[in-house]
Design brief:
The complex is a heterodimer of chains A (about 180) and B (about 90).
Chain A (H helix, E strand, L loop, with lengths): L8 H4 L11 E6 L3 E6 L3 H4 L5 E2 L1 H25 L3 H7 E13 L3 E2 L4 E11 L2 E11 L5 H4 L5 H6 L6 E16 L5
Antiparallel strand pairs in A: 1-2, 2-6, 3-5, 4-8, 6-7, 7-8
Chain B lengths: L2 H12 L29 H13 L5 H5 L5 H17 L1
Chain lengths: ~180, ~90
């Protein structure tokens, strides 16, 4: 498997359906970074004025970038499929350095997470990046076919995207389940 | 390579890690804990091990690093394990 594009995030990530905050992988270069999309559902904005919480944006970013990229790299290295992998291991959210929220996301508003891998070693990963709302009915799959690593590093996007949040240094680590308790 | 030689090199590494309490580096023992005694964030352990890997010229297995503790002695043991493997090869 060369990348996560085309795979169901529900198969790659360990989260159950009500906590899964990634709909689709749009672009992925394993040692560089990833772009993934999500659209908040009713359950995501319940009791919160129809607005998707900033804390859930961070969780979504962590799932889309740190956990997804790390799961891909370790699964490929060990040769173990995701389902089997999660029998012994899981990922913990260890830290985040900075979050800057510029705007917000409402119910049914589509957004993308763009994550750059800044460190990966011994199953610990650090990613930084941005969340952009998609403000047109752009075909995201088609749009990201021409995306490059340079586009990723420079956040080169068209006016179809509006900056929502900047996120620096999310750190996640893959650990044995026995160490979780 | 003796334990003391490894320890001295580890102290050299620790001096380059800005998140550590540098005042406590003068009295390092094998029991010194990087987190509780030197104030390292838990995320820093992997960075320190990565620096040790580079300094000593080994390629540590992920599983070995998974199981490592947070004392200086734990890091010395990891390095000596790989030094022994190299000697055997």
């Amino acid at each position: 498997m060369e990348s996560l594009v085309g795979l169901d995030p529900g198969l790659v990530l360990p989260h159950g359906p009500s906590k899964l905050l990634v709909d689709e992988y749009l672009w992925h270069v394993p040692n560089a970074g990833i772009v993934a999309s999500y659209t908040p559902k009713e359950r995501d904005v319940r009791d919160h004025f129809g607005v998707f919480r900033a804390v859930d944006q961070v969780e979504s970013f962590g799932q889309a970038t740190a956990v997804s990229c790390s799961a891909f790299l370790d699964s490929n290295k060990t040769g173990i499929g995701y389902k089997e992998y999660y029998k012994d291991r899981n990922f913990v959210f260890m830290s985040i350095e900075k979050v800057l929220c510029h705007n917000f996301i409402r119910l049914n508003e589509r957004y993308i997470c763009i994550g750059i891998i800044t460190f990966y070693k011994f199953r610990q990963i650090a990613t930084s990046g941005r969340i952009y709302k998609v403000v047109t009915d752009l075909d995201l799959k088609n749009y990201f076919k021409s995306f490059t690593e340079e586009s990723l590093r420079n956040f080169n996007l068209t006016e179809d995207f509006v900056l929502i949040t900047e996120i620096e240094k999310v750190i996640s680590k893959g650990i044995k389940i026995e160490k979780l308790y | 390579m003796t334990r003391q030689e490894v320890k001295d090199k580890i102290v050299e590494i620790l001096k380059t890690v800005p998140t550590l309490n540098q005042k406590n580096l003068d009295n390092i023992t094998e029991d010194t804990d990087l987190i509780t005694d030197l104030g390292a964030p838990s995320t820093e352990i992997v960075n320190i091990i990565a620096k040790a890997e580079e300094k000593f010229g080994f390629d540590f297995e992920d599983d070995d690093v998974d199981n490592i503790g947070s004392t200086v002695g734990d890091t010395i043991n990891l390095i000596l394990k790989y030094a022994d493997k190299k000697d055997e090869a």
